[in-house]
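User: Run a structure prediction on this.
Assistant: Running it now.
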Amino acid sequence: MASVLGMLEERETAARVRVEGLREEVARLAGVLEAAEIELDRRVIAREELVEALAASAAETTAVTGAEAEQEIVPSPVPVPGSIVPAWRGGLPVTVLAPDYQQILGVVEESDPTGQGPLKARDITVKLGFQTTSAKVEGVRSKARRLAERGWLVQETPGMFSAGRRSVAVPDAVPSA
């Protein structure tokens, strides 16, 4: 009986050591998780601040008072390729979009009155004059999807886009005071 009791004590000691090791690992992972959450919070705040600043900048460039209208009209800065697609809202001109997004929007809007219905990314790619390589089609699909997510286009079904505007909520937006 003594050997059985000894074996049980050894197993109990091994289990205690394992539990302590796991507790230490949990404590270490909790520290790693806390650091990752802090980094995520910083990045979310930075993105929100950037979106807010860009929206304010776009509002400033599009707002024209009567006195300014009599003076020389200063054109708003032309967006550069790779710039952010702002969420559509009433009064926001198409010129805030980068040229490639404007072209995609134009192709979809031109085909809508002809009754062709929603366009596939491949059709948009062809109408833009690009080769229908998978890379070009995927690039157009990605941009059209981004336009749909931001309210500039309507995504009828996955991969099918039609003209239309709708207001969208800006994700993770914090109301400004």
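The beta strands are 119-120, 153-157, 160-163.
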